[in-house]
Amino acid sequence: MGSNILVIFVKAVTKSSGLKISVIASINLLIILLFRNNALIPYLSLLLTMVASAAIVIVDFRLQSILLYVLFSYGLRPNSVRLLILLHSLLVASVLSLPYLVVDVVSFSLALTLAFLVVLGMLSLIYKSIRDTASIPQI
Amino acid sequence: MLATSYVTIKYVRAESGMTREFKVAIKARLARVVGMYKLSLLILRKSFTYLVILATILSVITSGLNTRYENNLVVIRDPSITNTTHTILVRFSTPVIIGDCSTLLGDLSLEGNCTYFYRAVLDQPYQLEKSKKLIYVMIGVEDKILKDLGIDRELSEYSFVYSEVLGEFMTDFILVNNKRIEITLIYVNNNLLRNYTIFYKTPLIPTQGYVGVEPVIVPLQHVLISTYENVMRILGSEEPLVTDVVITNLSKPPDPVRFFELLETRYPVTEVAAAGDGHVTYISETRIPTPDSLISAILSSVTASIIIISVFSSTMPYLTELRSKISFMGFQPWAITIIIVGYTLTSIMFPGLITLVYVFVSMGGASTLNSMVTLIISWFASTTYIILRIKPEKLVTETYMPPTPRYVLMTSVTDIKKLVELIIKLIRTNEFFTTEEVEWKIEGDEAFIHAKMNYVDSWGSGIDLTIFINVASEGTYINISSTVFGVEEVSETMSRSINALAVSRIVGGVKAWEATF
Q1: How far apart are CA B296 and CA B466, in angstroms?
Q2: For residue B331, what are the domain limits?
Q3: Does residue B513 register a pLDDT over 80?
Q4: Cβ <8 Å between B55 and A48
């Protein structure tokens, strides 16, 4: 059963529109960050990432709700479901914050490191809170 | 007065046939407009609008901040320029005080001869009292320029060269700021003055504009020319002011861009032009975004479009439902298009334009151009996407046709046990599905089968079958109920396909088996 759950989860994550959107947005942000010529660009792009993450939450909402139902029907406990969803959140957050990490590697700056950490932390929190409060009680 | 007007209007209305029907028609039309307005507000109040607005504002500011400028550079090839020595023209936006030529050229390690010009278009014209002419342009030049214009003698104090003099010279009074000064006007040849150029196709007389590529100069009757000292005396300036400098006989070919950038730090330069070796290069203070910068703007707009489109795509079921509802209400198909365009204009263009104003005020014109590119691309891409998506693809999709969830089959076979075994076998051997679970129960003349089958060509989709078998005296009834499920949203076509593949295998199998029973 465990392998089935993993297959369903991986397929749901990889086929979700949210991950595709985050990958495309991430590539764009990376190019913008690499060719920036203003110190405010990282912070503005950070805000843009926040908006993108909120959009991804909206896009993936239906799929996640169905996925939750499927996982529950497989007999998974709510905490395990939350853990899986948190994993998904971290994955999408990591993809969205990847541009900051890459730019940090190319040219380290404290502002970008902070931006990276803020993106990673904030996105995980946003996802977790939305899943906890919105999706699971609906089932 | 008001009462009379009111009565008149009422009378005209009563007499002019503004009938009740007409009023009803107007109201009906307005009701439709009001309806569309209210529907637009309905969508605008949704929380996803905030995301759209935020994405737009951030993208527009990002592309504005990411703008790189470069001075506008134009190179003209002209084989008629055969000089091997190079000449430079420097134009200033306001009159400046410049020292000697070496000060100007020192940073560039260049040597050359400078010719200074003061060419000013006056805000308040001076008046020639006797001639009754207004003077709009004052030009101060060096003696050698006056000689080129055919003035061989040295100009005394308050002597000016003027083209409208009858004879060789005349005296007149000029009114400058309510001050009456006696001056001497010396004749100058009109054609010589009109055609005199200080640089490549740049006339001595200031230009008013261009007809095609030909400059239109200020009429000569409004122009006074003299030495620097005389012009400064009239203007009341103690220091010699310069508006243009022409540098000739340069020791080596100059780099006009570097020259412009160096001068820009010290003087209000508006243009630098360099001529020589068959080319003329113009560098102006007008700044335009670099190609890299425009790519950055396009990338920002792509990011914004992705975010906005993703938000829109998640709201598609809601918008599609809204379209169906307003169709039932009697709205034309274009109503939803107007509503959507109105929505995107309000949620993208309106905040975008406000942000553009902010970008223009705080960052300048070039950044505004970049931001405008972002805004227009984002709006156009998002609006096109949503309008195309919301339209019904085909007419048949307008009417929802759900796949048949029930199927009743009658057979003459009454051996219920064998029938159940056959149906279970048919379910398990269906090559389009992997059977997740099959359960059954037989009780007397009735049997129940439940099967959950996963569709092999699509992950996470399948069918849930519930089959009731009832043996009666005249034959056996097989009632098949099905529910198609999917982790992702299953399209109507796929749903029908899955349903048909599962049910037809049972129906076909039972009929074939019945024939051989």
Answers
A1: 58
A2: 19-66+290-390
A3: yes
A4: yes
